[in-house]
Each structure stands twice: as C-alpha cells, then as structure tokens.
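W.,

You were right to be curious about this one. When I first looked at the sequence I had no strong expectations either way, so I just let the prediction run and decided to look at it fresh. Below is the sequence, 571 residues in total, followed by the output.
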Amino acid sequence: MKKSKLYKSMSLVMFLVAFVSCTDAFDSSQLEQAPEQDLNFEKVFTDYQQFRQYLDYTYSFMPGHLGRMWNSMVSELSDEAEGLGLNTCSTVFNNGAWSGDNLSYSSPTGNANRELGDMWVNLYRGIRQANMAIKNIDLVENFPTQKLHDRSLGEAHFIRAYLYFELIKRWGGVPIFDKPLELGVDELDIPRSSYDDCVNFIVADCDRANQLLDLVNDEGDTGRATRGAALALKSRTLLYAARPLNNPNQDVEKWKAAAAAAADVINLNQYSLDSDYVNMFFRPNLGSEIIMNRPRRKINFEQGHIDNSNFLVRFIVPQGYNGWMGTSVTQNFVNLYEDSNGLPITDASSSYNPNNPYANRDPRLKMTVLYNDRFWYDRKTQFNVGGLDYGSTLINPIGYSIAKFWPEAHQRYKGTSTYLNYIFFRYAEILLNYAEASNEAYGPDGASPGTGLTARGATAQVRQRVNQVPIPPQISSSKEGMRERIRNERAIELCFEEQRWYDVISWKKGVEIFGEQNPIIGMRITKNSNGSFNYNPYEYERRIFKEHMHYYPIPNNEIFKSKVLKQNPGW
C-alpha cells in the first residue's frame, strides 16, 4: 500500500474520541493510554508494539460497562428497574421523549445520548479503526510469531463484528463499511444495507475470527477475544436475526441456524456453569463460565463512576447502607421469579403467598435482589416506610434494590474492595440461546441434529445450578408454553446484565411489556406494632413505548448530511 493512500485512509480515522477515555483492559500497562493524536501512522503499521497498542485500543469501542450512561443503568429502560436519582437519564426513554436529536449535555438527561447518537458515532469510529487494522496488518514486519499475527487479525475481525452487531440490534440494517475509505476515491455517502446482509457480514467476520483466534488465551491476555467469543457472538447475532422483530415471517431455517450456532459453542467443551452463581460476578478471572469479559482493577465502595470504567457499586446501594439508591428493582420484575416448584406466581397451583411474598421462590430472587426483612451484612433490611433502606433523603418508594452486583461484604468505610468485571458472554446465555432457538425449530423436546440436547434439557442445566426445579411439563408441553417459560428464564438468569431491554425489543414485545398498558409497580411496605409487615403493590408510573420504538432513531445529523441514508419509520 502506498504511503499516500495510507495517509488518506488514516485521515478518516478519528480515534481519539472525547467520550471514550483510556481503558485498563487486559494488563493496565498495555492499555493505559489512547493513541496520540499525532501518532506516526506509518510506524503504527510497520512496528508490532505500536500496532498492538492501536489494536488494543480498538477494544475500547465495545460498549462494556454498566455505568456507561453515567447516571442510569440500561436496566432502567426496561421493566427490570426504575431510576430514582434526580440526575437519571432513563426518564428520556421511559417518557417516550427520545428521538434522533441530540440532547443537551447541560441537562443530566443528555447522558441518554450515550445510548443514542453518541453510540452510533462511537461504534462507527471503532469500525474504522478495526478496518484499518485488517487492511494494514501485513505491513507490520516484526510480528514475533505468525501465531500472534493471526490472532491479531482474528481480534480485528471479532471487534468489527461485535460493533456491527451493536449497531443492528439498535437500528436494524446499517451502512456496511468493509474497508478504510480513501478520500477522493471511495464514495463516503452509502445507503443502509438490509438487516439480513448485515447479519451475513457479521457471521462471516465471526467465522473468520474463529479460524484465527486461540481457544484459550494466556493468563495475561484475559479479556481478548477467543474462538469461544467469536462463536458466542455468532450465536447471539443469529438468535436476534431469528426473533420476530427481524424475522416477521418466522422462517424456521433462521431458528435452526441459531440453534446450530449455539451448539457450536457448547460443543467446544470448553465452558461449564459456575457452581457459585453469586460470586461468579466478582471473580478476578474467567472461571469456567465466563467466555469473555472486560477485566478491571479491584474497586472500593467509592470508585468506578467514570466513563468506560468500573460500575459504581454505591449507585445501587440503599441509603441505609450508605449508598445513593440510584436504581431500584421493580415489582414487575420481582413477580417474574417463580415459586420453588417452578410455577409462575400467578398460576392457580402456585405456593406464592402475598402476605409472605418472598418465601418459597426461585433461589435466584435472594441471590439477585434485596427485598424487605432479609439479612444483609449485619442486619435485616428495612424497605418498609420509615425504615433505614426506605431512606430519609434518598427515598426508595419501590421497595427493592439490586444485590447481584453488590458483594455482601463490600461495605462503605470497611476498607473492602472487589472485582466487578463486565461480562460480554457467559455460558448460561449460550444454553438459553440454544433453548430458545431449539424450541422454535424443534419444539420443547426435540433437538438440533447431532446435539442430543433439547430446549427443556438446556434450561434444566441453568436452573439446576441454583437448585431450581426444571420447568414443569404441565406449563411447557407446547412450543408456545415453553417459549414463555424460556423468555422468563432468560429474564431471571441474565437480569441486570444489559440483556432484558434488547431481548424484549427483538421479541417485538416492547409495547406490551414496556408500554402504558403495563405500568411500573412498586411495593409499599408498612410495619405493624407486632413486627409483622403489610405488603401492598401499587402503581408507580406509566411509561410510553410506541411500536416504532422497536428500532432506534438514526441520529438526525447523520440523516441531514446524507442523500441516501433513510431514517427508521416513525421517527
């Protein structure tokens, strides 16, 4: 490649992004700094160490931290949670006030841009950087080994695929750029490709990455892509492609492809469910279940609330435990936890008791949610009106908070610290991907060819890990019945992990689950003089979700400057 073409291409790569800061993924010494603005591009693509830094930084464009919306969690967009703080930006989505216009960062709601217009721009910047790496890797003459060359190329293909998936899960079909553009040579204004064409492009990148990457990385390279990560991304991509939003005619071949892709991960025989569901999220390493994560340094109670860094645990902690109580779990979501016999609490045969609502429930309720009158750290929780965890100035009127990302021993003023690595893929998701796709293609008790694993069997593995009974046959004998239970299982197992919002949208159930007809419910708890409690569900708010919101609005400034880019309908 001639130098002039290299410089022309690089002039389009604006990789020093204001809202993407330095990252300490992998070893902190490797990725402490972003590339310099005046980086010698010719040297980047001739020297291995500089190329490695360039490619490492490309990982930072992958959305990968729970606090990326600064003052709101993605869970607050869904029925999982409610943002309670004064500075939350989730209200923009909850009130149906989002659009293709950029919001002013002079208001806290401006942070919603991080999920909207800024996300679009950031993902394409990462794609340009990955394209440069793929295009110019062979100019690097001093790779230590051919294996490192191949792995690096595989990483670039994986990252590009991941970034394109993040685009299409929000916006549907998008423009595909498969190479660095050259000023004066390439057409810069191109139309959107179809959703299916984008899926095919992502799958091809995943397949190429699978050919080049290692099955297991060395310990110092934890956080880099592996074959398992490439196949997990392919599984997720094909699952979304088969769901109703993107497969309106319900082509069963798409479901079969999704089942086969999940089976490919399972058949690696590399992963298994972690026996400790609670502490899996606080491990310094991958353990047996995590396929890919973003490693972080240990954090104390105060640290982490900065862009692209660790999630601030204090944000989800009730005031009674010296927290800010920024995010509460909704009663809607608590209601999804089955009874201990595997039945929905609305089932006539359920053992659910509204006067003792947390007894005899799916064990994951206690593992993931803080509810009233349970022991936590050094006392019982008090979410009743006037109680310590109801709050005095930072009020929690909903009655719950998140336990999943808060280690019980991790308390303020106690000198404790914890790991809290962002998880991109874990094995439980793969089993649930398989269960969903296999059920749609072969029914509850059929199996994808060559696997011997049924949808019922896959879900039973996930539930057995926490000693929850298999899905009862009487409510899952049909494809339709099993579909509802698999969707519910996915909600519970993957709760608060930035899955629920996108799952519901791709099932095309946003109006039904997030809309006005399904108001957000809180639990008003009062304590009696004898120490017992009264539990009274009440309507907290009604949210707005319209049919066209199943696809995000493309940023209007992108639409206005293009002659061929079309906005999603309804926006």
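Here's what jumped out at me. Residues 1-37, 305-309 have pLDDT under 50 and may be disordered. And, maybe more interesting for your project: The CA atoms of residues 10 and 41 lie 7 Å apart.

Coffee later to discuss?

I.
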